[in-house]
Amino acid sequence: MKRILKQIRKNPVYRKAVIVVLFSVFLFICVYIRDNSRKLMTDENGREIIKRSSEAGKEESIELKVKAGEVEESVSITVSGQAFGGEELKKKFEETSENLEKLILGENEDLDNVREDLNLITEIPDTGISVTWELDNYEVMDIRGGLRQENLIEEGTLVKLTALLRYEEEKAACEFYARVFPPRMNSSEKMIQKITLKQEKASACPLTDQVGTYLYEPNVAILKAGAFRSLTQTYPVMKLHLSSHLYTSASLVPDFPGRRFRVESVSGFGKKELKAFLKDMDKANITIRNFPLSVAELRKRLKLKEGGDDYIFATTLSGGQKVLIRGKKC
Known about the structure:
The structure is a single chain. With 330 residues, this protein is an alpha+beta fold. It is 26% helix and 31% strand. It is built from 9 helices and 16 strands. The protein has a 7-stranded mixed beta sheet. Strand 8 (157-167) and strand 9 (170-180) form a beta hairpin. The longest helix is centred in the N-terminal third of the chain and has 19 residues, at 86-104. It is globular and about 85 Å long. It starts with a helix and ends with a strand.
């Protein structure tokens, strides 16, 4: 027996194993437990107990010490809050519906004038309520609230947003309407929009078939103005192809007029190359630029769902190579 105890004291693996076993036994037969920060409550039989938070859906982390003989270890336990009851859950769904509009606005002031990406959250903090979204128009907005600037019009587009709330097996739904417009233009963008067709054709346009660290997609104002060459004269970027309307750079250009992405990987369509490119990815936001397939056809081929944090641009480089570019917004 003394030999076993000696091995336990010397070997940290054995010591931790003993601690785990003793702690498990405590949960059922009440091995002595002491809380660092406060004394645990006791039941009518004098046994120490851990009480759930009275706030439904809220989790609480409790630090405890487990002691067996001379061996003592700290253990952290996460205790979930009490579950919502029938009327309480109904009230919580109603409160969530009332507050959800403010939570999804992002940098917009209200849903009547949306010019920046919305933040279509997937859970309500400290409630245990999850949220999934359905849109009636995926042409101007993706499932996470990102605006598809190439399809926005000056008159605005009304989009119906349906939030599906779920708590355990209970569900509820609420609807919002957002009117989506193109982003407001800064002085540089206004200058580019005024460029004449003659000036545009006369502008040099450096091309590259090497995708840099950052990728840029011009906003709808630039696309409508047709100022594709002029962008390379106003900003330190290079164009991937004369007809692709995507730009790249080694360093971030924070004031580029459009969406900015940090490139994570680039792939051709070889079987092994594509498999590595798609590893650990089951959904993505796909954009087509100067590419022979439609978004629906490419999504089917890649077997990817809509949404997520990943963005894939299917395009053609200046040398004619068809590629996929994976990135995240920055």
